[in-house]
TrEMBL record:
<keyword id="KW-0798">TonB box</keyword>
<keyword id="KW-0813">Transport</keyword>
<dbReference type="InterPro" id="IPR012910">
    <property type="entry name" value="Plug_dom"/>
</dbReference>
<dbReference type="InterPro" id="IPR039426">
    <property type="entry name" value="TonB-dep_rcpt-like"/>
</dbReference>
<dbReference type="InterPro" id="IPR010104">
    <property type="entry name" value="TonB_rcpt_bac"/>
</dbReference>
<keyword id="KW-0732">Signal</keyword>
<feature type="short sequence motif" description="TonB C-terminal box">
    <location>
        <begin position="944"/>
        <end position="961"/>
    </location>
</feature>
<dbReference type="Pfam" id="PF07715">
    <property type="entry name" value="Plug"/>
</dbReference>
<protein>
    <submittedName>
        <fullName>TonB-dependent receptor</fullName>
    </submittedName>
</protein>
<feature type="domain" description="TonB-dependent receptor-like beta-barrel">
    <location>
        <begin position="441"/>
        <end position="928"/>
    </location>
</feature>
<dbReference type="InterPro" id="IPR010917">
    <property type="entry name" value="TonB_rcpt_CS"/>
</dbReference>
<keyword id="KW-0675">Receptor</keyword>
<dbReference type="Pfam" id="PF00593">
    <property type="entry name" value="TonB_dep_Rec_b-barrel"/>
</dbReference>
<dbReference type="InterPro" id="IPR000531">
    <property type="entry name" value="Beta-barrel_TonB"/>
</dbReference>
<keyword id="KW-0998">Cell outer membrane</keyword>
<dbReference type="InterPro" id="IPR036942">
    <property type="entry name" value="Beta-barrel_TonB_sf"/>
</dbReference>
<feature type="signal peptide">
    <location>
        <begin position="1"/>
        <end position="34"/>
    </location>
</feature>
Length: 961
């Protein structure tokens, strides 16, 4: 029978929690292995063993006794979770790897056996948690780990919990008052510093739990404040666009006229016809980001046991995260037909070129987002008879992004162009994992010494956005369990209602972003105004910008405040004849750079799902060997109601202030709505044969599904109102998308050769159908004309459709060993995966397909745990992998270009010293080798992003009794 940590008895739960706690502390790195001899020893006596080894043993016990494939990781003790982030701990498990947030370096999501966030369902105490991101995945930077009790990763389905995940189901269990009757207090305080930010920031929290009324009632309260400051350096290419260039653009051409044109264009020389496949960088730049991440987590749980047969639990989990990022940098924009002196490598990547009259923008911005989530739940367990138990659960969860509708992003561009435009070029000299592209020329009219000369810098664009999302989940579950001798039968059902709403207000919708575009008089423009020196706060040196990378940048960047810049522009207004105002750009403009609702962004998606399940578990023998079987099925039915606001473009107008800018007019807005339904039966069977007491083999087969992300189900085609020359884009949803379906097979063997030690191998195959593909095509929309070409406008239109099937197969290897009573031990695992649909770089069709997220990975945790002293080091490695189809700029002739994440190795250290039974001190050092995170496009030298997020050091104290 698959193990569910919610259902274990209180005595065993106390043992499991206290011990699994170690595993988590074991480095946020050890695969939750454990479940063997410790459970056998603890079953006869209520013995609680703390520390890394105790935790590992109890986790190993859960793994060993489960008929399905489950890994568990726990806090070593209440309030002693070794990581500030759940995902950081999960990456130590076999088959689990993480995705990091580039700006902060924080683990943000997980992949299980190569399947990313949307393929993994995250539950809190068995309940789906809402997430205002609109996807299925949970942003783990919003989930505080400090008072988590246990994490269970179900790689094969537990039918009574969920079957809607092709990767895995993750269940986060929080402690309850009855886990350990009596009074408990845990407190912790720490300070952390990231070496680049140089600022020590606090984390402080406390937990109180007590039982009363003869231990028939209990209450638990905890709260924690966490802050992380991070300064990150970045170099970026917003997108490598695939297209065709003309021979006259290539280095060495003797052509005196070069008008790159499509085949069949009249009055063109052969060397002007675009016939050579090439990829060029759409935008290149660098920036520095200072991020302040503040999170408040709070929780209250009440339990009442009026009799031995009834247990009522009521809880409320709350979190609020505020992330503020200040950005300063520069960026330059390129158009394919304007490139000259082009040099190509053997793959068609443009590795050197120049573009005449290129403007230079100095960018600044402040992103400020608040994510608030609250989940209230009620659970009632009733032992109706000695054999029959009922479990009823109801919960309500709501997550809101920017609940007050505040401006979430302030962005600004200042710089020079026109007469001061540069014959600017970019050169690529190496691989994206070790070399950044570099500018061959820069500065006004090519004068590098005047790159940041404030006397010639003028205003350009002002981008303000206010993103507001909400996700509301209502769910009810009723289950019954019949147990008699070696037979267990479970039946139940669940109803869930998930409503996701999204809208965006911005300065593109009213075109106010161009109100003072043009750079002003120094650039030879009548629109735009000079930037006063008082707005510039200084410069930022780019020396040593990305550790371990070669390639140069301009020596300094400008530092200024985007909001102060837009307020300065607002102060200039004296009417339509205001000097520098981009006359005629903005209907209704009255001097204030207000935001307007973007109709194409409005989404309201309602998903209703009904589930029913039945499973039977029994124990028997085969040739005298214990044999466990758990089999059943789950029916899933879903209805989607999708609504939005539709409109079509009627015209495109160029900008007199900046020849790269375009403005689009639209038809009147129309409400659009649609609905769809689907149902699937999801069978599952788990079998385990204990060949000896120490050697077990498993076989598991199941069908699982993953529903499309809610934000992909909009019924409208969205064409942005503010666009750029040569980069017209449109995005569309598909409310009729069907879920991914997978037929899963697992075969594993485990050898529990001594206490707290084991080795295992697990083979898996997943045959996945209904893959959702982000198809991209070039198309005209409503016959509008592109003023830059005089031809029908060609939009790059991205839509999602159900596409091909694919098979993913792999093997997980794990080895955990403790060296007797020495205190030393290690935990190691490796996962190797492959697919029959790998990425084919030579496929230039717009519907290219490959399985994303697949990467080999390995983890090693070495530890010492004895006499109150714990020390561990963790090495986590993930090979290069295809992250997604799509880049920041998606204008390729060959569909959505890929994004690959380069291989990464991170080494972390942590230690804990117990000074008394109640008091301990701890320390942590993350990313001690100062690794970076980088991505690239179709080929390895097409760098997209590289982030240098530095090291982080933490020291603190814990107190408990």
């Amino acid at each position: 029978m698959s193990y569910n940590p919610i259902d274990i008895s209180s005595a065993r739960r106390r043992v499991a929690l206290a011990a699994t706690a170690s595993l988590m502390a074991l480095v946020a790195a050890t695969p939750a292995f454990a479940q063997g001899s410790a459970a056998a020893e603890a079953s006869d006596a209520d013995i609680v063993v703390t520390g890394i080894r105790g935790s590992l043993q109890r986790n190993l016990d859960i793994k060993r006794e489960s008929s399905g494939v489950v890994d568990v990781i726990s806090a070593e003790d209440i309030g002693k979770f070794p990581d500030s982030n759940v995902a950081a701990s999960l990456q130590r498990l076999p088959g689990v790897s993480i995705q990091r947030n580039g700006s902060r370096g924080e683990p943000q999501g997980i992949s299980v056996r190569g399947f990313g966030g949307d393929f993994n369902e995250t539950l809190v105490d068995g309940r789906r948690i809402s997430t205002a991101s609109g996807g299925r995945s949970v942003d783990f930077t919003t989930v505080g780990a400090d008072f988590v009790g246990q994490l269970a990763v179900y790689k094969t389905p537990e039918l009574s919990l969920s079957s809607s995940s092709i990767g895995a189901t993750l269940n986060i269990s929080y402690p309850k008052p009855f886990d350990k009757p009596g009074t408990r207090v845990a407190m912790s305080a720490s300070g952390s510093v990231q070496d680049e930010s140089g600022k020590v920031v606090p984390t402080v929290g406390g937990l109180f739990s007590t039982t009363f009324a003869d231990d028939t009632m209990g209450i638990l309260v905890d709260a924690i404040y966490t802050r992380r400051d991070t300064q990150t350096n970045r170099v970026f290419v917003s997108g490598w666009q695939g297209n065709r260039i003309a021979p006259c653009q290539i280095s060495g051409s003797a052509a005196t006229i070069c008008r790159p044109s499509q085949p069949g264009t009249p009055n063109r020389n052969p060397d002007e016809i675009k016939n050579t496949t090439a990829w060029y960088p759409q935008q290149y730049g660098a920036d520095q980001r200072y991020t302040k991440d503040e999170r408040i987590d709070g929780r209250i749980a009440f339990q009442w046991q009026p009799s031995d047969d009834i247990l009522l639990t009521i809880d409320d989990n709350y979190s609020r995260q505020k992330v503020t990022t200040d950005i300063d940098g520069f960026g330059v924009w390129f158009n394919q037909d304007d490139l000259r002196g082009v040099k190509l490598d053997g793959n068609g990547t443009i590795v050197d070129f120049t573009q005449a009259s290129t403007p230079t923008d100095f960018t600044a911005g402040t992103d400020k987002n608040i994510l608030e989530t609250n989940q209230v739940g009620l659970n009632l367990k009733w032992d109706a008879t000695e054999n029959l138990t009922f479990d009823a659960d109801a919960s309500y969860s709501k997550s809101r992004l920017n609940p007050d509708g505040q401006v979430s992003s302030e962005g600004a561009d200042i710089g020079y162009g026109g007469l001061l435009g540069t014959s600017l070029g970019v050169r690529v000299t190496g691989d994206s994992s070790k070399v950044i592209p570099e500018l061959t020329t820069y500065g006004p009219a090519g004068n590098q010494g005047r790159f940041t000369d404030q006397s010639i810098i003028g205003s350009h664009v002002t981008v303000r956005t206010a993103q507001k999302n909400s996700d509301e989940i209502k769910q009810f579950r009723l289950g019954a369990t019949w147990k008699q001798d070696d037979l267990t039968i479970k039946v139940g059902g669940r109803y869930m209602e998930d409503e996701f709403s999204l809208q965006n207000r911005n300065t593109f919708a009213n075109n106010y972003w161009q109100a003072y575009a043009g750079y002003g008089a120094p650039s030879g423009r009548t629109s735009g105004v000079p930037i006063p020196a008082s707005l510039i706060q200084g410069t930022i040196s780019t020396k040593g910008w990305i550790p371990g990378f070669s390639g140069s940048l301009p020596p300094v960047l400008l530092n200024y405040d985007a909001r102060a810049y837009s307020q300065y522009l607002e102060s200039l207004w004296v009417g339509p004849n205001t000097p520098g105002y981009n006359t005629g750009c903005c209907t209704g403009f009255n001097g204030t750079i207000d935001l307007a609702l973007d109709p194409g962004s409005v989404q309201n998606i309602l998903e209703k799902s009904w589930s029913a399940w039945i499973s039977a578990s029994f124990n028997t023998e085969i040739a005298g060997m214990p044999f466990k079987v758990n089999a059943g099925g789950r029916e899933e039915s879903t209805k989607i109601i999708s609504a939005g606001i539709g409109r079509l473009p009627t015209s495109i107008v160029g900008s007199a202030a900046d020849p790269t800018l375009l403005t689009i007019a639209f038809t009147p807005e129309q409400p659009v709505s649609t609905s769809s339904t689907y149902s699937y039966f999801l069978p599952a069977i788990d079998m385990k044969l204990e060949i000896t007491d120490k050697f077990h083999v498993r076989f598991d087969a199941s069908r699982t599904l993953t529903r499309p992300g809610l934000n992909t189900l909009t019924p409208v085609l969205n064409v942005g109102s503010g666009q750029r020359v040569g980069a017209l884009t449109a995005t569309g949803g598909n409310p009729a998308l069907k879920p991914y379906l997978a037929e899963n097979f697992d075969f594993g063997a485990e050898w529990y050769y001594q206490r707290n030690s084991y080795a295992s191998v697990n083979f898996f195959i997943k045959n996945v159908s209904n893959f959702i593909v982000a198809g991209t095509e070039r198309a005209t929309i409503n016959g509008v004309i592109d003023p830059s070409t005089g031809q029908p406008a060609q939009f790059t239109v991205s839509r999602r459709v159900n596409g091909p099937d694919a098979t993913v197969r792999g093997v997980e290897l794990a080895w955990q060993h403790v060296f007797g009573d020495s205190g030393f031990g290690f935990n190691a695992n490796a996962t190797f995966v492959e697919t029959n649909k790998p990425y084919d770089r030579s496929d230039l069709s717009t519907s290219g397909f490959a399985v994303t997220g697949l990467a080999n990975s390995a983890n090693l945790v070495a530890f010492y745990d004895k006499n109150g002293f714990e020390f561990r080091t963790a090495l986590n490695w993930r090979d290069k992998y295809l992250s997604q189809f799509g880049q920041a700029q998606n204008n390729s002739l060959y569909g959505a270009e890929p994004t690959f994440v380069n291989s990464a190795l991170q080494i972390d250290l942590s230690t804990n010293i117990r000074l008394t039974d109640q008091f301990s001190v701890f320390g942590e050092a993350l990313n001690i080798t100062n690794e970076t995170q980088s991505t690239h496009g179709r080929f390895s030298n097409q760098l997209l992003d590289v982030y240098a997020y530095g090291r982080r050091f933490t020291a603190g104290v814990r107190y408990r009794f």
